[in-house]
């Protein structure tokens, strides 16, 4: 292992860095996250170890070498205190390869090595392969629908600005309780000087997420702000994990809790 690799191991896993300042997660984070993004495809990828004897004969040792980083990467990244979904991006293609090998090898689990003709159970196992793929595809569409409809409000809200011609150069847009462009960032997760907006009265426009918490939102003062647009945003903390992760017809809207992502405009000040 080179010097860079040793430093990465020290910073990310042993605690030599300060990535933990950005939040920590338990060891199961990547397994839960992997299931959210790949559903049963992720489970099948992990089962690649179970078909290892078949894989060595059927695909030669090369496939084992190709797929092995999935398990090495998961183990390495799970040792970090700070975890993020993007850290798994390098092994996403390998997860699909491993799952494909398991599905393709499924009939081989029932094949009699001494039989010349395929048995009925092998034919049934072959028939299950497209069913597995179809089920994974449906679950993937369900996940995509949930993410797009639950969390796309921060992207969609800015499109409404183009419908208001009076908003232009000189207007100050504020996002939540911070300015849209902090003067600088740092690697200590410390608040930047001037990052927080002390006087909301300087804002002409305000983009704010209202999750109906104990403290009222800044834009709840109807005598000061008018709502130009409001888009539902899924409240993760108050929504059950099963229903917020995957779209289940007739249940997704009923079981989940939503806040509102709002675009607000300051009302003209009275003289």
From TrEMBL:
Listed transmembrane segments: 37-55, 62-81, 87-106
Enzyme Commission designation: 2.4.1.-
Main localization (coarse): endoplasmic reticulum
Bilayer topology: Multi-pass membrane protein
One Pfam short name: Glyco_transf_22
Pathway where it operates: Protein modification; protein glycosylation
Keyword Endoplasmic reticulum attached: yes
GO cellular component terms listed in the entry, alphabetical order: endoplasmic reticulum membrane
Keywords assigned by UniProt, alphabetized: Endoplasmic reticulum, Glycosyltransferase, Membrane, Transferase, Transmembrane, Transmembrane helix
GO terms for biological process, alphabetical: protein N-linked glycosylation
Subcellular location: Endoplasmic reticulum membrane
Gene Ontology MF term list: alpha-1,2-mannosyltransferase activity
Family (UniProt): Belongs to the glycosyltransferase 22 family.
Listed name of the protein: Mannosyltransferase
Species name: Ananas comosus var. bracteatus (red pineapple)
